[in-house]
Write a structure and sequence with these properties.
mainly alpha; two-stranded parallel sheet; 9 helices
Length: about 290
C-alpha cells in the first residue's frame, strides 16, 4: 500500500521529465508485470499477477489536476473517490472497534480462482458488450473492475475468502458514492481552474497595461530628446540651416524611422521653416525672422 498525503507530491512525480510513473500505476491496477525490459543486478521486476498494489491519496478538489488533467489516459477511472467528511459524526467518542478477523494465510497459499456470484458475471458481460458498442461513458471504463475489487475487499475484511451478493450490493453503494464524489471533484476543479485562469488573465492584463504605459512613456521621452537634438543641430547652423536629408544623416540610422515624421511634424507646427534664400534648407522660425 502506498500513501500520498498531498496530491501535489504525486503530480510532481507524474510530471517529472521522462517519468513513466503514470503508465506504471495504470499497469499496476490490473497487476501487470512491472519493470523495464533491461535487467541489472540492482533492478527489480514484479511478475504479472504476483502482487496487489493499493494507492491511497488525499486530494483537495482544487488541486486534483494530477488525476483529472488526463481523462483519456485512464488514471482517474482507476480510483474510487470518497469524501473526507462525514455528517454522521458526533461529539461522543465511539467505542474502539474490535480487531479484524481476516481469512487464514493458508487461504492464499496456492494459486486459486476467485469466484464471483452469477449476477456479477452477468453484469460484467453485459457492460463489456455495451462498452464495445460505445454505449458506456469513458469515465466508467474501469468502474466494474474497481467495484469487484471493493466487493472482494469487503469479504476479506469480514473474514471470508469468497464474495457474496451482499458484498457486491454494498460495493455498488460505494461505487455510486464514488461516482458522485468524482463528479463533484471535477466540478470543483473546473471552477477553481477557471477562477485561476481569470486571476492569471487579470494579472497578465495588469502587467501588459503597465508595460504599455511604460513603453509609451519611454517613447515620449525619446521623442522629446530627439526633438531637442533636431532643434540644437539646426540652430547650430544659423541662417544656413540644413536640408531634411542632411539633418537625418546626422543621427544613427536606427532613429531615422522616428526622425522623419518628427521633423515633418515640427515643420507643420511652424517650429522649423524653409530658408528664404534656399527652400531646400530649413532653419529655426525665430532664425528666419531675424
Amino acid at each position: 500500500m502506498f500513501l500520498v498525503d498531498e496530491i501535489d507530491e504525486l503530480k510532481a512525480l507524474l510530471t517529472r521529465s521522462g517519468s513513466t510513473l503514470s503508465s506504471i500505476l495504470r499497469s499496476a491496477f490490473t497487476a501487470e508485470g512491472l519493470g523495464f525490459s533491461y535487467r541489472t543486478a540492482s533492478s527489480q521486476h514484479l511478475g504479472a499477477g504476483t502482487y496487489r498494489l493499493t494507492l491511497v491519496a488525499n486530494v483537495q478538489p482544487a488541486r486534483a489536476g494530477a488525476l483529472l488533467d488526463d481523462p483519456h489516459g485512464g488514471m482517474l477511472q482507476r480510483f474510487m473517490w470518497f469524501p473526507s467528511t462525514d455528517p454522521r459524526l458526533t461529539f461522543d467518542t465511539p467505542l474502539m472497534p474490535t480487531p479484524l478477523t481476516l481469512p487464514p494465510h493458508s487461504a492464499w497459499q496456492y494459486p486459486r480462482e476467485l469466484k464471483v456470484p452469477y449476477i456479477v458475471k452477468h453484469l460484467i458481460k453485459d457492460t463489456h458488450l455495451k462498452s464495445n458498442r460505445g454505449e458506456e461513458s469513458p469515465l466508467n471504463s474501469h468502474a466494474l473492475f474497481a467495484r469487484e475489487k471493493f466487493a472482494f475487499a469487503l469479504a476479506v475484511l469480514d473474514g471470508r475468502d469468497e464474495m457474496t451478493e451482499e458484498d457486491w450490493r454494498l460495493a455498488g453503494v460505494a461505487s455510486r458514492v464514488s461516482e458522485h464524489t468524482r463528479e463533484w471533484v471535477i466540478q470543483e476543479w473546473e471552477s477553481a481552474t477557471e477562477a485561476e485562469s481569470v486571476r492569471e488573465g487579470k494579472k497578465n492584463g495588469q502587467k501588459q497595461f503597465a508595460a504599455n504605459q511604460e513603453r509609451s512613456h519611454q517613447e515620449r521621452v525619446l521623442r522629446n530628446s530627439r526633438r531637442q537634438q533636431i532643434i540644437e543641430k539646426i540652430a547650430a547652423c544659423g541662417h544656413a540651416g540644413l536640408t531634411r536629408d542632411e539633418l537625418l544623416h546626422k543621427f544613427h540610422s536606427r532613429y531615422r524611422d522616428m526622425l522623419g515624421p518628427l521633423f515633418d511634424g515640427m515643420v507643420e507646427d511652424g517650429i522649423l521653416v524653409r530658408n528664404s534664400q534656399d527652400e531646400r534648407r530649413y532653419v529655426m522660425a525665430d532664425e528666419d525672422e531675424s
